[in-house]
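Holo model, zinc ion. Inputs:
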Amino acid sequence: MLIFYGTRASKLKERQIQGNTTCPHCQSKNSFVATTYGRYFHLFWIPFMPLFKATVVECSHCKKTYKEDELPNDIKEALTRQDAGDPVKRPIWHGCGCLLFIVFPLVLGLLTTVIGLFAGGDDSEGDIPQDIREEYLEQDIAMVTSNPTFESDSISYFIKTCVASHIEGIDTDRIEYLSKTNNNKLLVILKVGDMKGVKKTSRKELVFAVEECIEYALDDSTITDFYIGVDGNWNMLMVKTPYEADLSGKFADKDLLLPFYDDIEGEGDVIGIEEVESDSVVIENIDNRE
Ligand SMILES: [Zn+2]
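Output:
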């Protein structure tokens, strides 16, 4: 990276030297004008740090200039006396780059604190508390598997077998499943990934097939309310519950599934060995059927 830096000077003050002075060159009286320059270090032409000051004295008559150390004593004394009463001041911008280094962290710190306060305030007051059911649903969506076993998730295990034989046009091997029960409610989540190549009507068929399979499997069960969610790569594609259905096959509101988690105990790990026991009847039914 090319870095431009160096020093520059700007005029700080120009004043007529008061007092009884004589130019050594042209003998003019009280003809001196003193100009003080301030030099500063710049980085990309941004004044970064103030450096030294220099004063040049010029005779306004003969135009001869004198540096400070060349000045005759009388002129030097007159100038010193005058500047003591009215000192030459440097503008603040000579060191503004340096100032940035000091001010910027302070401002940043302040901003962070202020934002933190506001954000913190929002969290504790303004925001609606996170619906715990959403958390449960997210957890369950993440739990889907393409190989549900009879021992781990007997309902999914059955649905997978059943759906594969019920539906065409969809690669059912790739579908991942999860099922869960909560009192008289059953939740089935299918993760199908990409359904772009599948016609919308066929997408619906998948939900109907799942529903049929569940109804068949849980024929004599106390479970009556089915919540079915078909998840895509990025979002829920279809949802069907006892109350509502969104089978457009593109963007479905997964919150429709949340009532499943109402009155759930603990973290909702309701499916267990007890369920497996009763489901074994179902599996036998299928075996008989085939
Ligand atoms: Zn002169």
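Helices lie at 73-85, 96-126, 132-142, 154-166, 200-217, 273-289. Residues 268-290 have pLDDT under 50 and may be disordered.
Archived with the compound record.
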